[in-house]
Amino acid sequence: MSSSDHPLSLAILGTRGVPPRYGGFETFAAELGSRLVARGHDVTVYCRSHLYPDRAPTWEGIRLVHLPAIRHKYLETVSHALLSAVHALGRRYDAILLCNAANAAVLPLLRATGAPVATNVDGIERMRRKWNVLGRLVYRGGEALASSLSSRLVADAETIAAYYRRELGADPAVIAYGADFPDEPDSDVLRRLGVAPDGYALYVSRFEPENHPLEVALAWGRLETDLPLVMVGSAPYAGDLIRRVREAADSRVLLPGALYGRDYRTLQRHARLYIQATEVGGTHPALIEAMGSNGRVLALDTPENREVGGEAVRYFRFDGEPRLERVAAEALADPSGLPREAARRRAGERYRWEAVTDAYERLLREIARQ
Predict the structure, then answer these.
(1) How far apart are CA 106 and CA 79, in angstroms?
(2) Distance of alpha carbon 84 from its chain centroid, rounded?
(3) Cα–Cα distance, 258 to 250 (Å, whole number)
(4) Across the strands, what pairs with 229?
(5) Is the dihedral of CA 217, 223, 224, 226 positive or negative?
(6) Helix (H) or strand (E) holding 314
(7) What is the DSSP pairing of strand 229-232 with strand 253-257?
(8) pTM > 0.85
(9) Are 119 and 146 contacting, i.e. CB atoms less than 8 angstroms apart?
């Protein structure tokens, strides 16, 4: 092994931790981190201790550091990132990957470690409706800090990269998200939920306003079908929205909460139809995973979702035509109208974890040499 490809000591900060038990960034840390370990690198992931009471020292070869966080809607993410950055001061990492521009306030501390920092900015977080004016100003400041203090910015979609070029004069690298599922047997989740293969529609997302769980439940109530809709998801600090979704859901809507791992992948593989209703963000993991495993996908009509789905996905709106219930009815009446193989092919060609890992490995080596 030459000096140019020697193993790196790397840290991933800003997620909830691994193994993944929440959302896209956690799956990202797990998939990328485990593959970098398999390539010989030393990888540390910082985890929120209240989510991992077993405090395992490693997972899939990744070193785990468990630190507390302030359990508050506005403080949990940044407080954990701050403690992670303080911990990193005592380590000698070759490079650090910071997830979420909301954590950019810790960049001065991370730069004090002497390690270069790449920041995966996520979507345009300040557009999420859960944030008040102060929260949106903080996120806007985070975008500016990430742009000025990161060794390199990373966006997972060209739409997000274009925003940072236009608004902040930055030039992010664009590295997509991965979507391939392991070859594995199904779990028993279909039996537990009382649904059959190809006998349900699926929605997967955090239950937050801009992900439209309430609107999806209401639209399904207006649809003339006996097909059940399985709505997988939850969210901390979203009790009121979850209550409203439960009140709006009729007997055809199943709400099992958040599901991960084999349960989640089994549901994706066997759904007759998948609904992606996210309004804010870049490349949404569940969307490309649905394209790759199931192939029949309906998505909210946004530039980000169109960038991912192209012509292989059908699109709907909540504030105009075509409405979700109309598009879903057409898809259920004529499944051939959804090009399943085209969606699978697009996901396979554009969104593979090994290709994602190749790109991140090159980027981390590049900044480590700076």
Answers:
(1) 10
(2) 21
(3) 19
(4) 201, 253
(5) negative
(6) strand 314-316
(7) parallel
(8) yes
(9) yes
- Among candidate residues 9, 168, 22, the one with its CA nearest the CA of residue 104: 168
**If residue 309 lies in a helix (H) or strand (E), which one and from where to where?**
helix 303-309
CB 218 within 8 A of CB 247: no
Check: CB of residue 103 under 8 Å from CB of residue 48: no
Q: Are 122 and 282 in contact, with CB atoms under 8 Å apart?
A: yes
- Quick one: CA torsion of 344, 349, 351, 352, rounded to 10 degrees? 100
Residue 363 contacts residue 9 (beta carbons within 8 Å) = no
The one-letter code for the residue type at 115 is A
CB 150 within 8 Å of CB 117:
yes
Task: Report how far apart the first and last C-alpha atoms of the chain are (Å, whole number).
Answer: 20
Rg (CA), the chain: 20
pLDDT in tens, the chain (370 residues): 334 579 999 999 999 999 987 778 899 999 999 999 999 999 999 999 999 999 999 999 999 999 999 998 778 999 999 999 999 998 999 999 999 998 999 999 999 999 999 999 987 665 555 556 566 677 788 899 999 999 999 999 999 999 999 999 999 999 999 988 888 999 999 999 999 999 999 999 989 899 999 999 999 999 999 999 999 998 887 889 999 999 999 999 999 999 988 999 999 999 999 999 998 878 888 999 999 998 799 999 999 999 999 999 999 999 999 999 999 999 999 988 888 899 999 999 999 999 999 999 999 999 998 7
Rama region for 36: left / alpha / beta (φ>0; ψ in -120 to 50; rest): alpha
Evaluate whether 64 touches 17 at the Cβ level (below 8 Å): yes
